[in-house]
Amino acid sequence: MAPRTAAIRATAVRSAAARTAIRSAVVWAVAVAALAGCGAGGVLEGLGGKAGWGRDEAISVAPHDGARDVPPDGRLEVRVPEGRLESVRVRGARDAEAAEVPGTVAPDGRSWRPRPGTRLALAARYAVDAVAVDGDGRRTVRRTEFATRVPDRRFVAYFAPEDRATVGTGMIVTFRFNRPVRDRAAVERAIRVTADPPVEVAGHWFGAERLDVRPARYWRPGTRVTVELRLRDVEAAPGVYGVQRLTTRFTVGRSQVSRVDAAAHTMEVRRDGRLLATVPITAGAPKTTTYNGRMVVTELHEVTRMNGATVGFTDADGKSEYDIKDVPHAMRLTESGTFLHGNYWAERSVFGASNVSHGCVGLRDVKGGSADSPAGWFFDRTLVGDVVEVVNSRDRTVAPGNGLSGWNMSWARWKAGSALR
Asked: Are 337 and 323 in contact (CB under 8 A)?
């Protein structure tokens, strides 16, 4: 995994048993079009497929990944050239409200289409998670994302966390705008984030299309946060007006901060300040080190696909150094591709002893993932918004705008990035 490389593709699927635990991950996964790319070096056996099961060709999706301005009655379809579709899930997010698109797999298992008469929402983002099985029972997964049409001369904010979510104490409220904002002060004034019990919060702009909001320190457990958007008729740029007026709320759960020591090859997991466990890990190898600094879990995936070619890890022939189609218990830490995830392909002796990954933090796991493995144990105890801090890595500190890494900024510097200062 290359933590410095953006625009990464991935595939991910969640099991029904984990849906409740990862509910607050859905909107962020929809709102951020950057996916997985991490793995360990070496040759991996049993990950290939039959002819026609290439990196993206195994499962084709329309609209294409990253499509924008998709009409609400446009074509939506998932297909496989051989084998069968085991599951397809299409989720949309609009105004932090997530909804599933109803649909069915054809009797021959080769295609999925939405229920007749289904129309997508305007100004929404959608994620497609598909799992296919070939003739030998080998699975491949694919995830794509697209955005539907926003009315001309209008702008919207896609934001996280979603309404009624329970998140970790490191959660940063993040807003992504579909058009560049010229009048940042007007837009920031129209967004109000308040907490009970009260605490000062401030915004920080990362470019013209993203505003993040956080307090000076991690949220107190049990805090109830209200997000009010009063963007309707606010002029963000000449002739471009907002359409949203709504209120959402989320709750801050228990505190969990995990400290990864890349030199000691351990991770200390602390719940409400108390040490729960010290877990052996493997971090980035000397040539592909892991970022230092405080990062926040933004996605939880029971299984995801990680392909080295998508992040620049190729051999002399241009082939990917790795293509792991079933990485278990994957927790995203940065947009550029840093994950904390289960690892079943490395030798057991690696964990707690050496760093062999392409930049991710690996926990011991088994193929298919196990709740009894270190990775499964940690995954089941993690919320979106939990903090993972990496120390003693031979790398620089993660950039504050790479994922929800704004905690690496001082409060004074954070507030200086507000348009209302």
From this structure: no
E strands, 317-412, in order: 323-332, 339-343, 361-364, 387-391
Distance of CA 44 to the CA centre of its chain: 25
Neighbours of 48 (CB within 10 A): 10
**162 SS3 class:** coil
CB burial of residue 228 (10 Å; 0-12, 13-18, 19+): middle
- Name the amino acid, one letter, at 299: E
The pTM (predicted TM-score) of the whole model is 0.76
Instruction: Walk across the sheet containing 191-196 and list its strands.
Output: 166-167, 245-252, 224-230, 191-196
Question: How does pLDDT run across 87-132, given as a tens digit for each residue?
Answer: 999 999 876 677 899 999 999 999 999 999 998 988 888 999 999 9
At 17-33, the pLDDT tens digits run: 333 333 333 333 333 33
Residue 227's H or E segment, with its range, is: strand 224-230
DSSP-assigned letters across all residues of 250-311: EEE---EEEEEETTTTEEEEEETTEEEEEEE-B-B-TTSPPPBEEEE--EEEEEEEEEGGGG
| Rounded Cα–Cα distance for residues 300 and 327 (Å) | 12
Count other C-beta atoms under 10 Å from residue 318's C-beta: 7
Amino acid letter, 415: K
The Cα–Cα gap between 337 and 246 comes to 32
Q: How many CB atoms lie within 10 A of CB 86?
A: 16
Cα–Cα distance for residue pair 91/83, rounded to 1 Å: 24
- For residues 268 and 379, the answer to whether their CB atoms sit within 8 Å is no
Non-local CB neighbours of 107 within 8 Å, separated by 6+ positions: none
